[in-house]
Amino acid sequence: MSWFTNLKINTKFNLIMSLLLISLFLIAAYLTYERQQTLILKVAVDNARTIAKQIIETRDYMSSVVHDEPSRNYALVPQVVATQVAKRMTKGSPYYVRQVSLRYRNPENRPDEYETGLLKQFATKAVKESYDVVKVKGERTFRYLLPMVAEKSCLECHGTYDEAPQFIRERFPRGHYSYNYKVGEVVGAVSVRIPMTELFREIGTNLKLDLLIRGGIFFIMIFIMASLVRRAIINPIRSVSEAIANVTKTGNFSERIPQVSKDEVGQLIGSFNEMMEELERKTLQRMESEDRYRKFIEMTQSAVVTFLENGKIVISNRKAEELFGLSKQELLGESIFNYMEDGERLKQGIAVYLREGKGGGVGETTHHQVKDTRGRLTDVEMALSASRTDHKPLFTAILHEIRSEK
């Protein structure tokens, strides 16, 4: 990214805004495409479900009202009526509807490989419906199947061979798999098929037009925003960018910029100088304080650890390393709560102090047990104190090991 850092501010802004707007543009286009696909699929499912239910309702109705009429007019057989209704409903539309069954009587109702697989699933587990977009002869096709369940009226023709009407027995001999239906079992399904290629092609056409229009709008937005920002922001600060470049590169807080005006740019320079002065003073103070503190705790004969409110250890001495069984590098960043046998009680005490400003064991000497990396427990007396730096609370624990007298 060194090439990017060497670009002028105006170029950086144009590049960033272009990438941002292009990203938003592509995301919006993708979401639009996905939304259209989802909408098309939802419409296909709703229409297929409606058609399939109408077919089943037609078949069930005919099955409940006809009696011996089919013996004189085969076209009144409920299944035949439902099939013809389906053909008329979908005539002239891209929908293809038929009834399928593994125990078919009409060869036109023989299921294909996809339908056979789903019918076998319907027979073994309860499924309300099934739909998917699959490839048929290289084209994306929507497939929908709604299970058909045998009802009592179906048994008049699909019960036992001996109870079937004469015209049925004449057409289908004893032992045919279309007999012996059971009430409640899945005996077939209404299958709906819709070619999706043309619909998806329309989505692609609409997407291209949408991309073209949005691309033009985004280009105009980039040009206008770049011009406004260059005049209002970039040009005024360009005159001082070289002066502060050395400070930003070196991080040397002793750097100062001459203030030659009192306008907005001059105020920016004055604020920068004040900030550098304050940072330099605080940095020196912190470094001196930390150095004195580290030297002091190394001189003590007890383990000393300083940690944040979440228990993260930030300072430790050699005695603490020996007590916890970890090197300084390993100990820093670890939670002191994990190495105290009653770590949860200590954590709750810290929370009490942060909430109430007192208590929680702070300012007291209490008995604890320290658990090192080998699981060995050591009795200690802990003197806990609290301080604050950079608006963050710090806690220092002096752990004096209690040695049993022999």
Description:
The protein has twelve helices and nine strands. The longest helix is centred in the first third of the chain and has 57 residues, at 9-65. It is an alpha+beta fold. Helices cover 53% and strands 18% of the residues.
* Individual helix count: 12
Outline: elongated
Total domains = 3
| Secondary structural class | alpha+beta
List low-pLDDT spans: none
Could you give a short account of the major beta sheet? 5 strands, antiparallel
Helical content, roughly?
Answer: 40-55%
| Strand composition percent | 15-25%
Strand order of the largest sheet: 6-5-9-8-7
Number of strands: 9
The helix-strand sequence is HHHHEHEEHHEHHEEHHHEEE
Give the CA-CA distance, first to last residue.
Answer: 67 Å
- Radius of gyration from the CA trace? 41 Å
The quaternary state of the protein chains shown equals single chain
Mean pLDDT: 80
Key phrases:
alpha+beta, Beta-Lactamase, 12 helices, 406 residues, five-stranded antiparallel beta sheet, 3 domains, four-stranded antiparallel beta sheet, 9 strands
